[in-house]
Amino acid sequence: MSDIPPLASPAGLAGDPAVLRGMTRRRVGPGRRDVFRMAGLSALGLALAACGVEGKKAAPPQQSDVEKYWSGKTRNGHVDFASWPLYMDPKLPELKQFTERTGITVNYKEVIQETGSWFAKIQPQLAANQSIGYDLMVITNGIQFTQLVQLGYLVPLDHSKLPNFAKNAGEAYKRQAFDPGNVYSIPYASGITGIAYNPKYVDEPPKSIADLWNPKYKGKVGMLADTQEIGNFGLLLIGVEPEKSTPADWERAAAKLREQRDSGIVRKYYEQNFIDPLGKGDIWLCQAWSGDIFQKNLSDGTDLRFVIPEEGGTIWTDNLVIPKTAANPVDAITLMDFFYEPEIAASLAEYINYITPVPAAQDVIRRHAAEEKGDRRKELEAIADSPLIFPSEEDYARLHNYRSFSNAAEQKQYDTIFQAITTA
Amino acid sequence: MKGSRLRAALTPYLLILPGGLWLAIFFVVPMIVMLSLSLQSGNIVDGFAFTWNWRNYLDGIANHHDQMIRSIGYGLAATVITIVVGFPVAYWIAFRGGRRKNMYLLLLLMPFLVSFVLRTISWQFFLADDGVLLGPLKRIGLLPEDFHILATGTAVVLGLAYNFLPFMVLPIYVALERIDPRILEAAADLYANRVQTFLRVVLPLSLPGVFAGVLMTFVPACSDYVNASILGGASNTMIGNVIQNQYLVTQDYPVAAALSFTLMAVLLIGIFAYARALGSEEVLEVTAR
Questions:
Q1: Shared-domain flag, residues B121 and B223
Q2: Which of A199, B111, B199, B219 is most buried (most C-beta within 10 Å)?
């Protein structure tokens, strides 16, 4: 107890002239506490201002940049590859072949679930010039792809290292609007967004996007939550080509989509998991990606159907790109080129059921079919003949790209308009 | 002597150091970063800069007040359900649990050994339009063909209530468990019947537990986004989904941060009003129990 100093008596305190002055006179100017408070606030203000998020727009690369990047880079015998679920046979036959032939080992991880969250994950590391742990990744053309390019996060490709691509890639895949000249990317697979339906519940096969507005299917229609996907269908419905659409068109398309939602026709806006509800009958028809329907039918024996609407559908491409901080870029580009051998492309397409960028794969699959018997033969024949895996020229003519944006403000305007539909 | 005095003086600071550092690094710093972000302008490509951009708050509220109000409504509804369902459970375990009390508590916590998302997805199967529950009921004509629970606000509220139920039961259980049985005997001695004992003795003594349960249920339920995205439909978006979207899809970090702060402010005001109404001045102490 004796350690504690005795409390000053109130009388003693009041007797102190300084305290008396403090208690009786009006204060002029800030007191000590106020000074501390202000100092604290301004420190907070400084801290607030110091937390900006850096971004920087990169200039398009010159030929010299390509040479500068690739000169002196050599094979290291390993590549880390980030991909999407179900984008390769789980036994990885193609990668085993690759390792046998080149001696390069591949660490293949299906870690990308969604372009947006993947971008959010890798962006800080790329901005800080740190490795993201992967040398090769699959990015869908769209907003994030453009941002990766604009921020200079992707390696410009050395086409002298891509002989198979030059020889075997379909012409359409060499002149894609989102990456003309394949400066940063080559396609891994493409897919079509159209309408899927469950014939168990839908008697009359849907033919057009307008069928998704049919009140007969109230509460049984699924749409995609992605602003680009839903925007495209709205625009195609009102007869506007998405690639050439204007903000006024977006508003009109959004009004149509809002009408569809508010009349209770749309059950839900799906991020990607529309396939199970479609199989179970929770929804009867929906906006869907072609390959998912095929895969579901093959794996679960369902009988779901897919159509490209008469107004047109959307074509999108998943692209192979090398992040700028890749540790093994030469091994990565070697693998990219390997995917363009017709045998390998055919083998990939047989499993993933999306459009392969290598047209010659069709004959390879036909040959595989001829070598097989029974059900597997039928499956392979179906794949080789499917317009959803090898679309004809006419099919391609009906397919539209996503709207691409010239600047961030335009993109934000588009997103705001269509997000108001999907997150109501 | 001197050394022990110094040690005695330092002990409280040393004890608070790990927790304090943890809070400073993982709570205060991120909060300042977020607060800063909520007042910035720009975009991901050109970068964001601090500009006292209060518009983020105005835009956020103007565009998403519907989802904000809906979230609070869903959160309230779920909280009420957890009280109604959870109170009897806690009461039964505390007073009738006997020797097996611990086992009942374990049973209550059992679902938590399975991932939150997985449990919610299993509800999706259970409640499917033509699934285990609704399928047979529709076949025998008890329910109309187009009846569905999934993709409605009801499904979201039920999912929230289910997922947060143990957070309500446990604090109520703790409060009831602390009631001295002699108090109940005293009530009986004073000719209180069962209903009177419950209303005038048990219920008031359990209120701190209910209060803690409400905090632990209402706040996370309002900001949840998993239930709405898995069980909800086209018009059941909660504010958590909007914030997630703004971060990951639109990459409008400032608006997302502003919405987060708005939500936090609304919830804090709500909680303090609630604490006042309940007459519980020592909110934090009660919650800490």
A1: yes
A2: B219
Q: Judge whether A200 is closer than 8 Å to chain B, CB to CB.
A: no
A195: closest CA of chain B, how far (Å): 18
Task: Write out the DSSP string of A338-389.
Answer: HTTSHHHHHHHHHHH-SB-S-TTHHHHHHHHHHH--HHHHHHHHHHHH-TTT
Range of the domain at B224: 65-288
Q: Does residue B59 lie in a domain region?
A: no
Residues B48 and B95 in one domain: no
Q: Are the C-beta atoms of residues B157 and B77 closer than 8 Å to each other?
A: yes
Confidence of residue B251 (pLDDT cuts 50, 70, 90): confident
What pTM was estimated for this model as a whole? 0.84
Instruction: Tell me the count of A-B CB pairs closer than 8 A.
Output: 121
Q: Between residues 392 and 421 of chain A, which touch chain B (CB distance below 8 Å)?
A: 408-409, 412, 415-416, 419-420
**B1 assigned to some structural domain:** no
* Same domain flag for B244 and B281: yes
A52–B48 CB contact, under 8 Å = yes
Residue B76, domain member (yes or no):
yes
Q: A residues 29-88 near B, CB within 8 Å?
A: 44, 47-57
Partners of residue B38 in chain A, C-beta under 8 Å: none
CB contact under 8 A, B46 and A280: no
pLDDT at position A10 is 42
Strand segments, DSSP code E, in A157-245 are 186-197, 221-224
Label residue A47 by pLDDT band (50, 70, 90): confident
Return the SS3 of B95: helix
**ipTM, interface predicted TM-score of the complex:** 0.85
Q: Looking at the structure, do residues B37 and B175 belong to the same domain, yes or no?
A: no
